[in-house]
């Protein structure tokens, strides 16, 4: 093992946290030094952001506490520049950090830049702070007021149902260009639609928002829909850090990686989670925690093996479920093929609620166990690195 090898993990979200904790366990007593960099000391449970938006309080998990006993050094600050030739990172308020191996785990954030006015007039689930501001705004709206959720993907569905359940006096409208749940099988989708109806959510589908005004969204067909608060959940963007540094990225800024999740331009950089452009034989991985944790697990194992001079096999992953909460009292879980297309099996109601809660809580449980064990998060190896 390479003594005093410096590994820096950028981003302590789901993937970065797991990479750091697992690598620490796999390289314990070896002299490898691991540093984890993140702007906030609070670990953000993105899977639960819609709960904050609806006014619920979440547990405050502090990153230094999660790292306790691992030997990983935590540096609080945002990485503002990356020099891959000098292998150096500039961290806001914390100077520079040098690395031998870098794990790029900067995740993604809500994209409000594609539609005029979205940046100024909508709220997002980008951080506990912004979600909390939205929750506060909801408490200021009189009964009968309107909340619009833009985006009928899984995040929009979870947000709309959560808000409608906790604020039954407000009218919630979900605007979507596609039919919500279109990636699910017919039975799971039917359950989803029943839940939307039960919660009194107005569905506007086949609609594209072209502009957001102070108190209304404008649709492509010219309609204006008034709101008292608007939540934007349509799509995500990634940090420009890698592209700005000359690291090979795709046209959205995701780091292009080889079959072992190493940058195709800078192999000492490993990219994981939402920030990595990963291709399997069945297609491209889209950003989820479900795929992010396996990429982190694989990368920690790969770095440990490379430091021991061992060979590594290509990353293999397949999806196996789409877990969707429908408020606190209902949920729908669609089980899937590796390429995320539905199989016949799905869960609804109480069983689905319990399942979804296990999914949302599992990353923190995984970090705790990974201090002592090699816990696996790879359920399906249905894909082969292309
Ligand atoms: C409401 C909601 C519900 C979701 N539900 C599910 C679900 O049920 N199942 C599922 O699989 N996925 C779900 N997702 C998607 C999932 O949350 C993401 O795919 C996952 O968070 C990606 O993990 P990550 O580690 O790549 O990035 P993140 O978790 O976003 O972590 C990135 C980290 O990098 C940090 N960072 C950013 N910029 C910098 C910088 N310059 N310097 C240092 N650090 C930086 C961030 O602060 C953050 O801590 C959901 C998302 C949302 C919003």
Can you tag this structure with a few keywords?
386 residues; alpha/beta; FAD/NAD(P)-binding domain; 2 domains; 5-stranded parallel beta sheet; 4-stranded parallel beta sheet; 29% helix; globular; binds flavin-adenine dinucleotide
Account of the protein in words:
There is one protein chain. This protein has 386 residues and is an alpha/beta fold. The protein has two domains: 6-108 and 238-319, FAD/NAD(P)-binding domain, CATH 3.50.50; 118-232, FAD/NAD(P)-binding domain (3-Layer(bba) Sandwich). Helices cover 29% and strands 25% of the residues. The chain has helices at 14-26, 49-53, 63-67, 118-121, 128-140, 154-166, 186-198, 241-244, 289-307, 349-370, and strands at residues 6-10, 33-38, 73-76, 79-83, 88-91, 95-98, 101-104, 109-110, 146-150, 171-176, 202-205, 209-212, 216-219, 224-226, 229-232, 236-237, 255-256, 269-271, 276-277, 279-280, 283-284, 321-325, 331-336, 342-348. The chain has a five-stranded parallel β-sheet. A four-stranded parallel β-sheet has the order 11-10-9-15, covered by helices on one side. The mean pLDDT is 96. The structure holds flavin-adenine dinucleotide. Flavin-adenine dinucleotide binds next to α1, β2, α2, α6 and α9. Flavin-adenine dinucleotide (FAD) is lined by residues 10-16, 37-39, 44, 46-47, 49-50, 78-79, 105-108, 125, 155, 158, 239, 241, 273-275, 287-290, 292, 323.
Number of helices: 10
Instruction: Compute the separation of the termini in Å.
Output: 30 Å
Shape: globular
Computed CA radius of gyration, to the nearest angstrom: 21 Å
Strand elements, count: 24
CATH superfamily of the largest domain: FAD/NAD(P)-binding domain
Integer average pLDDT? 96
Approximately how much beta-strand content do the residues carry? 15-25%
> Which residues form runs of ≥5 with pLDDT under 50?
none
Note the main sheet: 5 strands, parallel
Small-molecule components bound: flavin-adenine dinucleotide
State the CATH class of the largest domain: Alpha Beta
Architecture of the largest domain, CATH level 2? 3-Layer(bba) Sandwich
């Amino acid at each position: 093992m390479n003594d005093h090898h410096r590994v820096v993990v950028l981003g302590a979200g789901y993937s970065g946290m797991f990479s750091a904790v697992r690598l620490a366990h796999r390289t314990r007593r070896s002299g490898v030094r691991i540093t984890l960099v993140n702007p906030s000391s609070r670990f953000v449970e993105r899977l639960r952001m819609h709960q904050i938006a609806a006014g619920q309080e979440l547990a405050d998990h502090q990153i230094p506490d999660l790292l306790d006993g691992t030997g990983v050094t935590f540096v609080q600050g945002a990485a503002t520049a990356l020099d891959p030739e000098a292998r150096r990172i500039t961290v806001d308020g914390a100077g520079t950090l040098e690395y031998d191996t870098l794990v790029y785990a900067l995740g993604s954030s809500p994209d409000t830049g594609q539609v005029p006015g979205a940046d100024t007039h909508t709220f997002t689930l980008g951080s506990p702070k912004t979600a909390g501001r939205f929750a506060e705004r909801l408490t200021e709206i009189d009964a009968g007021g309107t909340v619009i959720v833009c985006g009928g993907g899984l995040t929009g569905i979870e947000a709309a149902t959560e808000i409608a359940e906790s604020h039954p006096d407000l009218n919630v409208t979900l605007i979507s260009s596609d039919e919500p749940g279109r990636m699910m099988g017919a039975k799971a989708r039917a359950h989803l639609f029943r839940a939307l109806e039960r919660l009194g959510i107005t569905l506007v589908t086949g609609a594209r928002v072209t502009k957001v005004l102070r108190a209304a969204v404008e649709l492509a067909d010219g309609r204006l829909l008034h709101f008292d608060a608007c939540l934007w959940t349509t799509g995500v963007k990634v940090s420009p850090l890698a592209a700005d540094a000359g690291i090979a990225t795709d046209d959205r800024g995701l780091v292009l990686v080889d079959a072992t999740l190493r940058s195709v331009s800078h192999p000492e950089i490993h990219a994981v989670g939402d920030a990595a452009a990963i291709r399997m034989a069945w297609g491209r991985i889209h950003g989820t925690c479900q795929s992010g944790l396996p990429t982190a697990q694989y990368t920690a194992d790969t770095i440990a093996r490379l430091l021991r001079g061992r060979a590594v096999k290509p990353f293999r992953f397949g999806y196996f479920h789409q877990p969707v909460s429908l408020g606190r009292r209902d949920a729908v879980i669609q089980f899937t093929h590796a390429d995320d297309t539905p199989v016949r099996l799905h869960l609804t109601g109480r069983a689905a609620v319990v399942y979804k809660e296990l999914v949302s809580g599992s990353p923190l449980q995984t970090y705790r166990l990974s201090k002592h064990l090699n816990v696996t998060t790879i359920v399906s190896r249905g894909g082969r690195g292309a």
